[in-house]
User: Fold these one by one.
Assistant:
Number 1:
Amino acid sequence: MGAPHVALFPFPDHGHVTPMLQLALHLASRGAYVTFINAELGHQQLPSFTEYLNQTANLKYAHLSVGISALEGPLTLDVVVSDSSGLGNVESSSLPVLHRSLESQSSALEKLLTDLNGAQNWPSFSCLISDAFMPWTASVAQKLQVSWMVFWTPSATRFYLSTKALGHKEMNTELQKLANITIGLSPESTDVFDLSRLRNPHRRQLLMARVEGTKMADVILLNTFDALEEEAVKELAKDFPIRSLGPLCFGTGLKASKANEESLSWLDRQAPHSILYISFGSKAMLQGRPLEQLAFGIESSNMPFLWVLRSGGEGLPEGFVERTEARSKIMKWVPQKQVLEHRAIGAFFTHCGWNSVLEAVVEGVPMICWPTFGDQPTNKLVIEQKWRIGRGIQGGEVDAENIRQVIQDVVGNAEFRQRGSLLSRSAKSALGQGGTSDQNFKFLMQELAVREHHVASC
Ligand code: UDP
């Protein structure tokens, strides 16, 4: 059987494109021919990677250059966090418009795949792997008569809770029961899952469509490893053809461009484990009271810090920058994976996006958790209660003194770092020779090869 040719199609958002890119690199390093197709918005977010990608002989980059239609203003997926609860207002985002626009590109995707099939000296595609956010891609795979696999980018725990709780009439009660009994989590309220907050019918419908879509997939790929989310993975495996392949951020050699390395040279000059790294990912934007209280909390912790503020510092309390500049660096963007790998990092103040969480797990960095929306509250619970490598800012009124206290608790907790080191070892060995994710990759390569054989003999 020859090497399979797989098309990968990520949802065009930074937190989705990056792990799909990591998946592409892992598959290519295992001998698959990979075509990475990026929609316009995703393409705009990855300019520094496109050149790099084309350097791998069996990995090609293709750009689905259909613009975002039906948009009235510039598209932004930013989630503004400005009320005192510290949670973001997702309803205000452009997500529904983006979904509609992407779905309207179905025939363009089909045409691109057909054209690419004829143009390359590679075997024909035998499989389309697309993000679970785009269940409509199943029909594209069907028309092209290739296998369809789904890549679920959030955690397995989130997937499990969504599959079980969403369709349930008594969703809140069901969620609480599932979390307690099956996963072993004790949430103070079901709200922390942000699944029970899906009052907006459109958001609820989108999540339902995603979950329903996975039922059509030949295989569901997860960015986790079996030991990390043991219970959720076991439960899911009873009903779904899943493969845990993560943590995909490990072992690809994917690096950010040189232009971003100022933060790293600043870290080189700092003492080991001395720096608090603060980042809320690529979408959450803190404003107003949450931003102000966070700044005061960081300042009174007296820790030196590296803070990613995509607004560049706008909205910070007066004099904050001047008072802290001797022990701080504020930047709009940093190469986060390399930052977390750096020996100077002592703790990570995070919004608990799944990619950020996995990057911290791989490096064994303790976390201070301030989830803002979506799957992040679930991730926070797992960090606090299952892995016990961090603590969260408690809900309700966001308060500087509370923030200072949690920072100091996490930074001074040697057990968090010890458990973090063990988890880091376990994460790295999952993808090492004979590890669970390595094995799952081998199974996946066999499955792809069988499909390739089937396509070739048709
Ligand atoms: N990231 C980065 N530099 C930054 C901030 C974020 O490289 O300054 C990356 C981070 O490493 C992660 C991704 O952006 O891979 C954020 O994804 P995550 O799932 O954590 O959160 P989201 O952005 O989707 O909310």
Number 2:
Amino acid sequence: MQEQHAWSGRFSEPVSELVKKYTASVHFDLRLAEFDIEGSLAHATMLHKAGVLSDADLAAIRSGMADILSEIRAGEFDWRVDLEDVHMNIERRLTDKIGDAGKRLHTGRSRNDQVATDIRLWLRAQIDAIVPLIGALKTSLLDLAEQHADTVMPGFTHLQVAQPVTFGHHMLAYVEMLSRDAERMSDCRRRVNRLPLGAAALAGTTFPIDRHYTAALLGFDDVCHNSLDAVSDRDFAIEFTAAASLVMVHLSRLSEELILWMSPRVGFIDIADRFCTGSSIMPQKKNPDVPELVRGKSGRVVGHLMALIMLMKAQPLAYNKDNQEDKEPLFDTADTLIDTLRIYADMMRGITVKKEAMRAAVLQGFATATDLADYLVKKGLPFRDSHEVVALAVRHAEGQGVDLAELDLATLQGFSALIADDVYTVLTPEGSLAQRDHVGGTAPAQVRAAIARQRQLPA
Ligand code: ARG
């Protein structure tokens, strides 16, 4: 016999098997089960307080839900595609267990406000897991920065050697990005943490509900103040996915650098074997698989952002079934981000820095040319003239195959009579670094101060 749907009364023929499968979401939204039960229990408690549910009904709902929760946790719950989604699966099981009290649970509620509530509860828990994981990754980068507050490396623009920086300073750039990422997550949480329940299908309900009470029970900071908006918008999910995309984009940049630095041609770092794999054909290979995958997965998360924003575009008010498509991209975004943050914090502890190779690269690229120009400016030459003088000196050194610091004083003075033998202190990488001694600069003392500042910030 054809199983009756919760809404079958109005229909003269059953849906086809294909339509049933096409419209069902239980195979993915069962992930919301625990939040669905939490929301239902708060709703029932509120209905009881409002005098809509009896003591006996509330008690039955509570004990029925407790049993269902254990069945789900034990993997014994029989999820049925013909019951469409997580909400109807749980409600049916409750009704099978406790009878009419189970059927009363849906009073003053719709799946539209129910699902919006479930997603918000789920997403809030994800954000609460993600923020400390960003903090842990920051700590791992700060530890590395601290070990290398004095380690010289070339800073690049256009991927050409530009000026000396410290490896610690370079790591701190990512710490700053991650700090803003954590801020964005926490900011997004404020808008996630509002209660849709009470909006019912779209227009509210005729029952004497107390939405602020339900909100308090569920730990929401506020209620959604318009019922049509409450059931229909998914901007909070888009915002989260945008914030997650930025984390992934930041990590894709770091990944790209790790990959480049580990290339034998560059040889700045080594990544611990446990994050690399070999080749099935080339015995010499050690590939930086983890950073490569992070770089790849960043595209996947940004793709989810596109999917969600296009899902929302041009949807008329209020709820439309389109919104059922919000879950898979959202779930995968959180899963991918959480796994990436976990692995990354560990991987950064497995980085070996090859200081000699970094220093040698600084010495090859005329990285202190700007320091020589600044030196001449301090001796009174206008910057544009000084730039020209140094360009000529660089050309000469390049022709000789030596660094600026390797030119003797007489040769340097041939480019400008302002040059004296104190010039060599600014031409070394260490001299160059030491002079960039201001907030946000790369002088080792500033790098240490920036690390201390970051360590004091709330996680
Ligand atoms: N499974 C649906 C979703 O994820 C639940 C809401 C269904 N509401 C409806 N009126 N069909 O959006």
